[in-house]
Each structure stands twice: as structure tokens, then as C-alpha cells.
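Here is one record:
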Amino acid sequence: MTTEKLKLSDKRVIVALTGRVDSAVAAFLLKKQGYDVIGLAIVVGNKDLTKNESDLPKCYIDNLDKIKNFCESIKIPFYATDIKSEYDYEVVDRLVDNKLSGFANSSCFDCSRLRMNTLFSKMKALDADFIATGHYCKVYENLNSNEYFVHSNNTTEVDQSVFLTGLRQEVLKHLILPLGELRKEEVLKIAKNFKLQVSDSKKAENFCFRTNESIENILKKRVPKSLIQEGVMINKATESIYGDHKGLVYHYIGQENLETSSGLKIDKNLQVVAFDHKKSFLYLGPSTNLAFKGAQIINLSVSKRLDKRKPLHCYIKFKYSNQYISTHLYFKNNGSGYIDFDEIIYPLLVGEQIIFYDTDKRNSKIIGSASVRKRGVFMGLDRVVDYRPREVKEEGADDKDIQDSFYFKF
């Protein structure tokens, strides 16, 4: 939280409430600090979005009355806004599009961006000064560049900084994150001590719409039958055919515990590693087929003061992992670049969102983001190779196996 925000404790702030403990404690703390707090419930999706209610997104609000009662208990106004149509367009339709293309699931990022933009627009409509959420991360201003940056929580296990990546500067400037310095245990203790009537947070070991079961209902309603073609499940290395599948859209890269459309179980060591949409082939292979040392990236966006003339050593995180991964970022033109990991990454998917941090320590700063375009390994480009004496290959020596790799040359 910036010094400017600390001095304006009598200002109005709109808090996004979900009916669960994190956002409730955030609103309670702001009220205690003297802010004029307004509670806002942002309604996304319907119960019929998935077959099982347990598969609904973690941001789904199942009880508006519960939020209204909470607001009354701490004496703050309550508002609700319905953005189901926007959610269908910006989140669900893009999820279906990614499924049809075989790309990684970006629904959590799309949903977070939509809800934050909605919160910001309501801030202006209600003549408020700030917005706030229950995310476990922080926002700081760089006084030299006047840029605002998202920083990680001190506790890696609860850090949610990845989901606030890519927000506009005008949004970050007005964002307050009361739980940024707190641990989950402290938040639960506050809720208990002050008898806040809210539910605990939903478990976050998986991101939204992670399994096929959770989006089967969506696909059947939104994907025309003409785009769902049956095909064969085939071993990528041996080209052995295991059986038929019901459609590529019902599978995802990295999927395990596979069965053919007839119910035949496939070797548990095999998983989905690639799609061939023209032939409707579902390629299977070991986990090593999804492990890579580098990637070509697109949609690269970084802070404006980074020196792009030379490679940058930084750290990355994915939405499904709390671990920082050391990497080197190489800048190219038109929002593209390359990343060279210090270790082999699994799983690395096309379309995966990558978040760049300046360090792997507590309070690390997000300096940019990108999405994966191609995966492979790096190979230096020898620009004077034609002037070097050619080496004589030893008799019987085999060429190095370069199967299933895309080589990035510099």
C-alpha cells in the first residue's frame, strides 16, 4: 500500500465480496481503518454452467443473501452487479476457443481481469476513490518511475499475485490489498475473533475448469457437432493405435488415466502430448514429451524501464505452481521473445500464461507476462560456420537425436 493511500483513510473504497472469509476480512479491516466501505458482489456464471456444483469456478457466488447479511453486520452498504453476459463472452467463449485449438486454459486470468475491470468501473460509477479485494498480494508504487507493481505475498503457499498480472496502471493506482502482508492463519483468526459470519475460501489446488468433467456441459452446449470429430488415439513415438476417441475437444494436453471410447484403459504412464486437428489424431506419450528447456513467447508485456538490449535474468511462475523457476529472457520485436529455463519444465503447454518476477524471494515484484507460442531448446547460431574447418565424422557414429524439439537459433 502506498503512502498516498495510507493518508486517505477517510476515502470511499469499493470492496469485491464473495461471501468467503478472505474478502470479508479485507472489508472488515478497511472499515476498522476508517474507510467509507461499500460491499460489491460480482455475479458471474450460472449454476447450470457445469454438471456438478463443486466444479463451479472459485469466484462463483452461491448466496447473495449471505453477503448482504455480512454487509449489514459490519454496517456497510451492499451492492450487486450481474456480469454473466460479459463472463460468457470474455471467459467461457475463450475457454471453448482454447479447447478447440488445443491451447492451455486461461480462464482464471480472463475472469480475474474481467472482475477487476468491473470493480474499477463501479468505483467510478459510485464516486469512490479506491477498490479492494481479498487477494494475498501487494501493490507498491515506484517513486522514480511512478509505475505501480504487484508484489507477491510473504507466504508462497497463499500468494495470488499471478492473478493480478496485466492490470492497467490506472487500476493498480486505485487498488488496495488489505491481506497483502497477512498469512492465511491470521485472516482466519481475525474472522473468528470478530465473529464474522462467512464461509472459508474454496480450495485452490486446481485452477477453474481444470478437468474435462468440469467443462463437459459447456462444450456440449457451445460446440457444434460438426466440430467434434471422432478419431484415433495413437502413440507418438511408435505410431501404435490404441483405439478411438470421442473428440479432441474432450481431452487436454497432459491428461492422464486415459480410456478409449469403448472403455479400454490405456497404459497409466502415457498421457496426451499433442493434437492433430486435420487428422483428428490424439497423440499419447510419456511425460518427457511435455518437458522443455525453453520456449518462444508472444504477447510479451514488461515494465517500461527494463533494459531490452540484453538478456534478463528473472524468475517465472505458472498458475498451477507456487515455485519460482530461474530463467533468462531474450527480447525480440513485436512483443515476442525467448525464454531459456535453468531447468527442464513440465508440463509446458502452448498458450500457457507465464508471469515474470524480479526475484525468487519474499515480496518479489511482477515485471511482466507472456504466453507460450513454441516449446523447445536453445542452440547458439554460429555465424562463421562456413569459415571453420569441417570435422570428419567418425565411422559408425550416429547423428544426435533431435526428436520432438524446436531449436531456437540466435
